Amino acid sequence: FWKDVPQGPPDPILGISEAFKRDTDPKKVNLGVGAYRDDNSKPWILPSVKKAEDAIYNGKGDHEYLPIEGFDAFNTSAVKLAYADCPAVADKRIAACQSLSGTGALRLGMAFLKRFYPKSNTVLVPNPTWGNHKTIAKDSGLDWKEYTYYNPANYGLNFNGLVGDLEKAPDGSIVLLHACAHNPTGVDLTHAEWDQLYDLFAKKNHVPFFDMAYQGFASGNTDHDAYAPRKFVKGGKSILLCQSFAKNFGLYGERIGCFSIVCDDAAEKDRVMSQVKILARPMYSNPPIYGAKVVSTVLNTPDFNKQWLADVKTMADRIINMRAALVDGLKTCGSTRDWSHITKQIGMFAFTGLKADQCQRLAKEFHIYMTMDGRISLAGLNSKNVNYVAEAIFKVSN
Length: 398
Ligand code: PMP
Fold this sequence. Notes:
single chain, alpha/beta, Aspartate Aminotransferase, domain 1, 2 domains, seven-stranded mixed sheet, two-stranded parallel sheet, 14% strand, binds 4'-deoxy-4'-aminopyridoxal-5'-phosphate
């Protein structure tokens, strides 16, 4: 049956982990993986998550089906975490559906737009963006187009270019926005720039489609990181929001996320919710239960919640410290280049500015693995390998 099926290309990011695994050199470093590691390069189970797991499965857990929209206590707490004091929460006009992590939320969101937003068939995505955004759009039957975002000249934001492109876009365009910790660049808008962007969205009636995969993980503060979606909602925009609990809870493999749509009133919310469920049912019927129980137990138990806020800050701070240590290491080696963008950028990743041939040399000569666009995951750095990495980057970039 399948003799004409062609071999597909390997996933560009997961392919790096494979090459890393095959490398037997003890000095090897994986800067490709988008998952948090502690100072010993080990995955970290958050103490708050551990406490919740002990509490849940202390003889009380079962493995029943969830409803299509997922675990009610989870959806309520996910909405509260994202939207906090936005009046839309108290008005009960936010439709929320548990999703298969952030990816599943994006998929539900794009399927919803495809079916119910006939005004546009195109999602505008930042240039660059997380590669999966484009393929999710395509597989959902939508087209995608890039808007200006990154400025390679200063490794920062091209805000004027961004505003110019969104001004030029047809009114009512769908625009995908990274709420915080932009992947792959680590370059975020300031709060003042978000305010300006909000005015533009209000004027152009664009549809804000937020991807928030790193709430708390960027600055260490969950309110600070949720500034943009809250600003839009408080201003009266009907946003779509994709939340992932992979990074900020360390629950990568549990596939726990939430897709929500802010509606004009409770009746609209009920109609929207009914359609989101109709989309989810034939995709996966209903979502997994474990991560939903863990997240809602953490968020709804005051002691665990306090511990979790500290855990998130521990991760964010370690990453921020690794940025500084890498730049210090480069200076110590004698690099005269300006590496300050590495400490200015935020979140899991830094866009180093290294070229593909330099990245290749890092892999071949120094056993350091990263994506060929020069993106490094700071989580792969620790107190033991950061100077080795700094020296290697110095050698290939001088
Ligand atoms: N959006 C962005 C920007 C991401 O970086 C990621 C994770 N790499 C995701 C969404 C989704 O991840 P997950 O499906 O594991 O929650």
